[in-house]
Amino acid sequence: MAYCFISDLHLQEKKPEVTKAFLSFLDGTAKEAQRLYILGDLFEAWIGDDLKSELSYLIKEKLLFLNRSSTSVFAMHGNRDFLIGDRFCEDTGVTLLEDPCKLDLFGRTTLLMHGDLLCTEDLEYQDFRNTSRDSKWKKEFLGKSIEEREEIAEELILESKEATNLKKQEIMDVSPKAVEEIMASHNAELLIHGHTHRPKVHSLKINEIPAQRIVLGDWDKSAWYIWMDDGTC
Fold first, then answer.
1. Range of 183's domain?
2. Beta 108-112 vs 209-215: how paired, if at all?
3. The overall pTM is greater than 0.90
4. What is the Cα–Cα distance from 117 to 121, expressed in whole angstroms?
5. In this structure, which long-range contacts are made by residues 147-155, counting pairs with CB atoms below 8 Å and at least 24 apart in sequence?
6. Taking every annotated instance into account, which residue ranges of this chain make up the domain Calcineurin-like phosphoesterase (predicted)?
7. CA pair distance 195, 39, nearest whole angstrom
8. Overall domain count for the chain
9. Cβ–Cβ contacts within 10 Å for residue 198, how many?
10. What's the rounded Cα separation, in Å, for the pair 226 and 112?
11. Cα atoms in the 13 Å half-sphere on the side-chain side of 141
12. Separation CA 99–CA 77 (nearest Å)
């Protein structure tokens, strides 16, 4: 069985070249896998499953076709598309995963995460994350008009980018302590995540056992993905 992992595509109308690359990926590489895992931030912003746009229709149609033809698709919320819900899953056939998600990959206990939960030193972001994941906040936000939600989303993204420019790079990366703690608590030998846009394979030890942390890159300039087939990565 072949597994494929991607994250941080940040699909948006303003970057048609990324959408084109993703559609090509779905028509090619993704079809060769039995399972495709999207580990958050498929979209630059997802303001609710009632969103009607050319991009959303196109992506949903392609994911549904992939699910029905060759590949089971799984997705996880990111910090930009955490409002993906049941209707999106019904429209696409996508299975929504918890974060973290534990699975067995060719005998290796593996954790899948978006990665933002590991950035524990970014207290400002963690506060926002806790607030925006609250059911009351989501209900209130989704009760607004699409136009209002789009405006709020644009403001939040702009504020996030401005805040990022002012923060130290170390704060926005994952905390080694957080990585070790969550991997140890799940007895994980492998952690795969995105979010930081810093693709790299990290070697470490968890409970005195050799382990790995593989970080996916974003799709702004390159179509990053992880391919695992019969234990080979």
1. 2-229
2. unpaired
3. yes
4. 10
5. 149/47, 149/48, 150/45, 150/47, 153/45, 153/47, 154/45
6. 4-199
7. 9
8. 1
9. 15
10. 12
11. 20
12. 8
Rounded Cα distance between 220 and 213, Å, is: 22
The per-residue pLDDT for range 152-179, each reduced to its tens digit, is: 999 999 998 887 777 777 777 999 999 9
Task: Provide the pLDDT for residue 231.
Answer: 60
Residues 6 or more apart in contact with residue 159 via CB below 8 angstroms: none
How is the chain split among helix, strand and coil, in percent rounded to 5?
40, 20, 35
Distance CA 192, CA 186 (A): 14
Interval 40-66: pLDDT, tens: 999 999 999 999 999 999 999 999 999
What pLDDT digit, counting tens, does each position of 121-152 carry?
999 999 999 999 999 999 999 999 999 999 99
Q: What is the CATH number of the domain that holds 76?
A: 3.60.21
Confidence check: pLDDT of 1 > 70: yes
Give the residue among 201, 175, 216, 207 at the shortest CA–CA distance from 189: 207
Residue 60's H or E segment, with its range, is: helix 54-69
Task: Tell whether the torsion through CA atoms of 143, 146, 148 and 149 is positive or negative.
Answer: positive
The total number of residues written for the chain in this structure = 233
111 with 191: CB under 8 angstroms?
yes
